[in-house]
Amino acid sequence: MKKDLWKVIFLSLLVGFSPLAAEAGTLGSSLLDESGHLYRVTAGAYGELFVGSTELPAETSVLVLEVQTPGEDVERFLVPGTENQAVESSPSLLFEDASRTLFVLWHSARPASSTLVLGSFREGQWLDVVDVHNSGEVDPGSSRFSVTREVYTADSADEAPSSVRRTIVHLVWAEEETSASPSGAVSYAPMIFEEGVFLGWNPVVNLNSLAPHSESPGSPSEIIAGPPTVQSGGDSRTVMVGFPDPQTGRLVTVEIRPITMELGLLAYQASLFIKESGENGPALGGLSSLAGGVGNTIIDIGFSFHLSVKAYLASIAEASVLEIANSSNGPGISLDFLAGGVGNSIIDIGSRVFGGDGMQREFEDSRLTLLRVPYESPEGQEPLPIYAQSRPAHIIRLYAVADRLAPQTGNQGLTFLSSESGDHGLVCWETADGQLRYRETIEGEEGWTEVQSLTIDENLTLERAHEILRERARRR
Prior knowledge:
- The protein is 21% helix and 34% strand.
- By secondary structure, the chain is an alpha+beta fold.
- The chain has a domain at 2-13 and 262-394.
- Helix 5 (307-326) packs across helix 6.
- The longest helix is centred in the middle third of the chain and has 20 residues, at 307-326.
């Protein structure tokens, strides 16, 4: 019966939500969109790029976005914030078709620090240009990014439903080795936009810490880390990140999936219902009534959930009310405590189902992290309980799908590529004699294939060889 219920929920999720589209960033400074517009980011002296303009001194070093529309002259747009003393490098471009927005990511080396900067450009105008909050030093050229998008329904018992467009730019990069950051540290930051407006802050997560410590770690000297890789998952709603970890000698695959915002809104309404029921907890008989009221609140709220999904979440909330209340000491229970606990239960359990892959995967708690991103930065403050937040936090599920012992490759820098599911992998490395060598995981086994190679010559460029291996790994 339980298995059948999960099937119903899975099918409901497929038909009930606006999908999230995952698109990966293009490495390099040029990009061609589906309409034939060519975008290029170039660096140079202001006077050479904007002949005749005196807005800045001619010798000022800047970044410029060039837009070539078919049949028209090239238009140049100064990239905001690059006219300072910082040295900009390693631009990457991504064009999101759904919103017709170009995202530009670059590395900015400043006198006292280095950081990543993200800009968004649409219809001839710069929208946002923001620094990525990061306390470490970014390794230039290591940054990768992907975009997911969702249209969710903001609804409550008192207000009419409204659609909100949410875009999340998922940034991944390697940290430069410092006394505080070991070699091979890989960081992740979600940059969240709603209706094109940046949230205003971003958390940073160390992805190396997500994989549980293995009982059979490799030797740290066995591998030299290449940059992390980022690609879309199998259902175009997830982002897969793969990277070598020189500190453990292992290859890590992390799945990143934003959870639909409507789950957080349901948890918020259920938590608020309990909070507003009174200051002190009722007797045991009253708890059953309170549990039923929480369940009815979830059922009554509109959203785009199928009734079977809401019924499942309502059952989670009702059971949590009784479990948390009955496990407390003393004759009464704080409704603040109860409200927070029930809201957390809805998110913790519901997030394992939402997204569709909960059907195929049983999540190990030691590998699972739920990243909650509130609208207000919590830096220096205690996190607010769900019912006290002005709006529910964004929820991003991070799951360490696999961490494998790295194969023997010699003293070479590794690039690690993952399949769409994360269950298979491929490592490749370049050699001085013009070979791109690679090894793959073996189906149903812990080991790796023998070394194979592609010859780089006039018939096969290194870039094309990497594309071939990337596609092979992704489709396994």
